[in-house]
Amino acid sequence: MATTTATIATTAAERYLRVAEAIHSVEMEGLTVTESGRQDAREYIAGRIDSDELVARARARYGLD
To answer: Which residues contact 54 (CB under 8 A, 6 or more apart)?
Structure first.
């Protein structure tokens, strides 16, 4: 059975808010976001990568694939 992913168009403002909320959540747990993670987030906000790519990069960075 094939799995499909729905693509939902978002604005840069929406992507910025999502990233800000995610970073806030991480920091509330006492952790930090690396500079490479922040760079990936900036690319996501700018629309150069989608959320699937953002997650894939984070998973690869920490050897989770």
So the answer is: 40, 41, 43, 44
Place of tokens 């929406």: 14
* pTM greater than 0.90 (yes/no): no
Which of 6, 49, 47, 44 has its CA nearest to residue 22? 44
Spatial contact of 21 and 46, defined as CB atoms under 8 Å apart:
no
Neighbours of 52 (CB within 10 A): 10
pLDDT per residue as tens digits for the range 2-48:
666 666 789 999 999 999 999 999 999 999 999 999 999 999 999 99
